[in-house]
Structure formats: structure tokens, C-alpha cells
Amino acid sequence: MASSDPRNIVSLTLFRHKASAYEHPDCGEWRGKFFARYLPVIIRAYKAFYPDWRIVIHHDSSVYTNLYGDVLIGLEKDGIVELEEVAQDPPSLAEASLWRMRPIRMSSLAKVVITRDIDSLPTAREAEMVREFIASEAIAQVIHDSPSHNGLMTGMMAFKVREVCARVDTHDLFFWLRDRGRSDYLDFDVHETDQVILNRHLRPSIADGLLETKGTAIERNTPLERLGRHIGAPFDHREAAVVLSQTGLSSDVSIEWQRIESREKSIGYSINASPAFADNRRRVIIGVDHNLVYAFFTPIVTAMWKAMGFGVEIVALDPIRGS
After folding, report:
1. In this structure, are residues 218 and 143 in contact, taking their beta carbons and an 8 Å threshold?
2. In whole angstroms, what is the distance from residue 158 CA to residue 199 CA?
């Protein structure tokens, strides 16, 4: 379990962008909705393993129409998560990925920030790694839990906010990184450009204060750990929900989980919800008759509603005749 401190932040991003691999037609019914299915699991896990940490989700306007969007809005009202809309539409894939760095600024009240992927399952072992980092003299941490992990990784980092900003000599790490990527004329719509920026510019500045924490396969010996190949790996969200429900909880965390479940029930959400769940909740019914004006405007209006994330049902009405 990581150190409990309300000044600490779990920083996440949730957005859609045309350059994302998860917007490819091959994704089928989960196209553009892939990450939302992990939210009910990871929010509970962060509450269990990072008690009292703030969960901040930096997002675009798509959050309001995604699979778990209505629940998230309710959880923000309950103080379970914080939603920060950065832009209606992300300007680029890399910039949206770097939104996780936004709390790392001198004006922030945050003490420690960890940056994670939505499809990364928090575990007790990961939280222990973060606790060891906080207790160390290091100012930044990267977790390498797989032979494929190397260098700085946007979704596997931890930062001591003021120490990192002072070392880099910036008041805002997000803008510092973004501007250096722009000055290198990098293509911000190429996958992992954000990590190119981190390794090219941030790593040299913090090298002597960087803690590289390495995990091994032999340590992955709990039911929760075995759901993923390593820390940061995608996992089966339904199976994870079952395993996580068997985790021993403190009374405070148990109460927070009950509040999450209450919000989900009020919306009608379950872990088995289909990708069409949000579409079914946000539906517009359009009535048309034989009038040619409807024939002209109906396709236009339908496209506009769908662009806003609503499902559209068109009902043909019998013409109303005068006496």
C-alpha cells in the first residue's frame, strides 16, 4: 500500500484521437470505447492501494458520452475522482498523452504524482514500489516490470513535484515537454512520441535523481498480479473485478467502494455492459412524416446528434389530416 497523503495524485488521461490505434476499424464494437471498460476496476483498485490519493482524469469531451461517462460525472460529485477537461478535442496524440504531466507544476499543491495508463491494473506490489520511491532520495521513478520496458515511460512514472520542477527549472512540466517536442519538429500523431520527448529532454535533466525500479516475474504471485503479464499490461476487466472484490479492505475504502457501486446502480451500469451501453442511455427519437422538409433535414440532424454521441431512432408518423 502506498503512503496515504491527500496531496498525492494518480494522474490519468482519457480521450479519443483519430491517430490512436484504438480508433482503427479492426477494433470492432469496442472502437473508441476500449479504455472506458477498465475504469470501474482501476478506480476501485486505486482506492484500495493508494488510500487518500486524488484520482485526476484529464480528458476531452468524449468522456461525457463514453461507456462509463455518466458514472464518472456522478463520482466527481461524490469526491471519488476529479475530472479536468483539457480540450474539447485533443490537438494531437502525443499532447493528450502528456496531459498526465499537468499536475507537475510549481503552483500545484501536489506533493507526489504518479502517471498511469487507463488499462494498467494497480496492485499492492506496484504501490509498494511507489512507497519505496517516496521514502528514497530520488526525485523521479520509472517502473520496469518487463524485458520490453526501457527508458522513461509515460504510464510508468512517479514524480516529486517541486523537486522535479526545480531540477528542470520550469514552473510547468507539461508545457516544458510539449514545447521541446515542438522545437524538435516531431510528429505528435505518431505512437510513443510522448516517450521520445521524455527520454530526449527530461531524462538527461533528472538522470542522477532517477530511481529505476525493476520487477521480476517471480514476484507476480498473487491472483491480481497474475491477471496481467506485468505491471502496466492490459488485463481482463471482468475477471479483475471478481478477483479485486475478494481483496481485504479497510472500513474507509469499503465505504468508498459502496459509493461507487451505488453510482453505477443508479445509472444501470454493470461490469458486463456492452459497448452500446452509452448509446442506449443517450438516445434521441426523431419523428417524421411525409413533409419533404423532413426528408431534407433528417439526415443532417441525425448526423449532428450522432456526432455528439447520441443514438438516433427515427419514427415515421402518419400524416395528420384536417377535418
Report:
1. no
2. 15
